[in-house]
Structure formats: structure tokens, C-alpha cells
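Changelog note: in this version the structure field was regenerated for every chain. One regenerated record is shown below for reference.
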Amino acid sequence: MSPLLRVEGLVTRFYTDEGVVKAVDGSFFHLGADEALGVVGESGSGKTVTALSIMRLIENPGRIESGRILFNGEDLLRKSEREMRRIRGKEISMVFQDSLSSLNPTLTVGAQIARVLRYHTRLSRRARWRRAVELLAAVGIPEPAKRASHYPHQLSGGMRQRALIAMAISCDPKLLILDEPTTALDVTIEAQIFELIRDLKARLGMGVFLITHDLSVVASFCQRVIIMYAGKIVEEADIHELYVNPLHPYTRGLLRSIPPLEGEAERLESIPGEVPDLINLPPGCNFGPRCDLADERCREVEPELVEVSPGHRVACLKVGAPTMGGGNG
């Protein structure tokens, strides 16, 4: 069966006065029709730019330079803007991390959901409002008929996030993109939001593309995970395989920084250094300056993303070295 989404050789760059920002540099990956795929990495790794590229929302001075984004077998990069407007919100929806800035402060949440329905359906005005209330109820907002008439600032952060999800699923999309959807929420609300999305995913049969910096969130929600660093995918694997057998030094560093779910936490390790400047990337491996395994070859040769076992890809010249063995417990 063909995947719902297939990204091939995606290159997205931003042309600034300081130079060219290599935000996404040759990504290849796919997402199944009812699969949850996690994308993990530090700020500046290219996660959000990848999602915006899929949505064709890259604005000046950014530009998608090359590649293909196949959605249901059709290349989104060949679609006109008019065609993309029909796809966004109906077949592919995105929930951004900042609910307050993502919602229009001058419209009630019910009116904002109804606007999406007006654009993508033939429902009457009354039916659109009724559907908006039903959607608010479906995402667990209490007193949905009352809340539909509220403005975003009158709702809590958790309710606003739920309202955004209600808007995103209003037309039963095939693909839901979540960009750090629980960043500003406490852990209890975060758990509720992911339980809600898990239920909606099962009910609607949609694929989910989850962007996060938190591998523990991915472990509880996704089937597969992509690790991004400085605009490139450095590792991809089934979530269980990644935890048991992480191969890239960056992945191992991320895993060592997660506190254990049980027992006393030992001293958590951080990854030394910073994500490199995407305008002036180092020669060879982008992670080389932060990697304690790097040698001269790593500083000269850019590693390719290769499949080392079924479904497990890694971009590291040191894979196979004795110090790379073992897992995360």
C-alpha cells in the first residue's frame, strides 16, 4: 500500500542578508495512512520548516528549492495556490503550538470553526454552527454551546488548544500535523490532549505528524520517529527499536537527557555545545563539533542516511564502532 505522505529530497532555504539558511536539507521520509510519526530535535533542527513545507506555507525570504511532497500520490509542489487552499484544512490540517496567536482574537471560537466549514463544505449557516458546537463537545470542552460564543482570551490554554484541534478536525482530514501542541500546558493537560488526539486518530483513521523536542511524548504516542539535526534527518526507526538500539550519537544524547519514569533519577546528561549556524554549517558531519566520537574523517566527509536494518536508518560514519553499541536501558 502506498503511504499517505512521501517526502523525497526536500530542500527548503531562506535567503537573508546574512546568507542562505539551509533549514531543510534533503529530507526523505514517509507516513502511513493511519500512522503516527514523531519528528524530534532541538530548536533550529528543521522540524517546523518541514511541516510548513508540507503545507506550502513557506513565506519570503524562504523558498522550497527542490524535492517532491507526495500526498495520496500527488505532488503538492506542483499544485497551484488555489488548489492548496482547498487541501489545507480539509485534507491536511495543522495545529500550531501557540494557541493564542493561532486563533483570531476578534472572532468567537465557534465562528472560527464555522468559517472553515463554510469554505470546505456546503452546510447551511445554522448547520455550520451546530457542527462547531458538536466539534467542541467532541474534543472535551464543557458547555460547548456556551463556549462556542466565547472569544479566545476567555478560554484557558487547554481549552484554546482543544478548540484548535476541533477546528483542525472539522473536515475529517487525512493528515493532522501537530507542532508542539502542548508546549505551554502542564503535564496533566498535556496527557489529556494526547489522549484526545489518540482517540480522534483511531476514530477518524488519520495519519499524524507530531513535531516535538520530547522523546518521552513520542514514545507514548508514535509508532515511528525521525530525529532531525541542523536541517537533516540523522536517524529514523520504529520507536521501540530507537529506544533499545539508538545508533546516532545525537539520538543517544537526547535519550540520556530524559528522566526515568520510575526510580531515582541519576544525574541527567546534556549535549555539549549548540546547534550550528545554519548559514555556516561545519564541514563533514553537522554534529561533529559536538560529538565525542568524531575524528578527522567525520570533519571531512558528510555522512549519508543509510538503512542499517529493516526500517532503521542512520547518518553516522561511526555506526558499528564498539562504543556505539547498547541501548537506553
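Spot check on this record: The CA atoms of residues 40 and 227 lie 5 Å apart. Confidence is low (pLDDT under 50) at residues 321-329.
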